[in-house]
Amino acid sequence: MKKLIYSSILFLTFTGCDVAQKIINETGSSGNLTTQEFVSGLKQALTIGAQNGTDKLSAVDGFFANAAIKILMPPEAKNVESKLRSLGFGNVVDKAILSMNRGAEEAAKTAAPIFIDAITQMTITDALGILKGGDFAATNYFKQKTTDPLTKSFRPVINNALAKVDATKYWSDVFSVYNKFAAKPVNTDLSAYVTSKAIDGIFYQVGLEEQKIRKDPAARVTDLLKKVFGSAMAQSK
């Protein structure tokens, strides 16, 4: 029964439906749910979603095997990468790329508690803001609340992962020299670059989860959800 309730909450939350907002504003409830039940259910549903999303990225190859978020050399370093490969140092480059992604995967293990903390602090105003917001309202809420703590949590984990293969030292040595002659310097702080890309990947995955809830008709197949959806459609006529 709880799963059914959470499904209906997710639908009302992520459809961005004005009708759902009207139901809550005018009756203090969404169907048979009070506003407080709506908020509590939303928090639990988002907790499950955050855990599922971070579990995917923290698994081996969560970043490395995902073309959409795999961390590669920055665009400004592509010429250097190509030169190193042509000189027979492709293995070194590949190890550096693998270490960047492994660091991101390891860091992702620390993300769920940070998201859960943001969810715990969510107010009724926050919840209704997500309801009224656009397609990425929940993702944007997480960005606002978690970017700083994620950065603080990810940075040391990624530092350690890169240090294991001397990636940070190699990067700094190579690009410190390169930057003396380059028109567009490369950031010599590799861990800062990887941390930023890892957090981008986290929010990309969160955005996918949100869009799945908003757009996927399969999320509306339960009897309770059909009832809620039917009620919303009736209110709109």
> What is the count of helical runs?
11
- Order of helical and strand elements: HHEEHHHHHHHHH
**Structure class:** mainly alpha
Portion of residues within helices? over 70%
Largest sheet: 2 strands, antiparallel
The overall pLDDT, averaged over residues, is 75
Number of strands: 2
Oligomer: single chain
Head-to-tail CA distance between termini = 29 Å
Form type: elongated
β-sheet strand percentage: under 5%
Low-confidence stretches: 1-30, 219-237
- Largest sheet: spatial strand order: 1-2
Rg: 22 Å
Summarize the structure in words:
The chain is mostly helical and 237 residues long. It is built from eleven helices and two strands. It has helices spanning 2-14, 18-27, 35-58, 78-86, 90-108, 111-120, 124-132, 137-163, 167-178, 190-215, 223-236, and strands spanning 29-30, 33-34. Helix 3 (35-58) packs antiparallel against helix 6 (111-120), helix 5 crosses helix 10 (190-215) and helix 8 (137-163) runs antiparallel to helix 10 (190-215). Strands 1-2 form a two-stranded antiparallel ribbon.
Task: Give a concise summary.
This protein is mainly alpha-helical.
Key features?
237 residues, mainly alpha, 11 helices, 2 strands, elongated, disordered N terminus, disordered C terminus
Write the layout of secondary structure elements.
Layout: H1 2-14, H2 18-27, E1 29-30, E2 33-34, H3 35-58, H4 78-86, H5 90-108, H6 111-120, H7 124-132, H8 137-163, H9 167-178, H10 190-215, H11 223-236
Antiparallel strand pairs: 1-2
Helix pairs in contact: 1-3, 1-11, 3-5, 3-6, 3-10, 5-8, 5-10, 6-8, 8-10
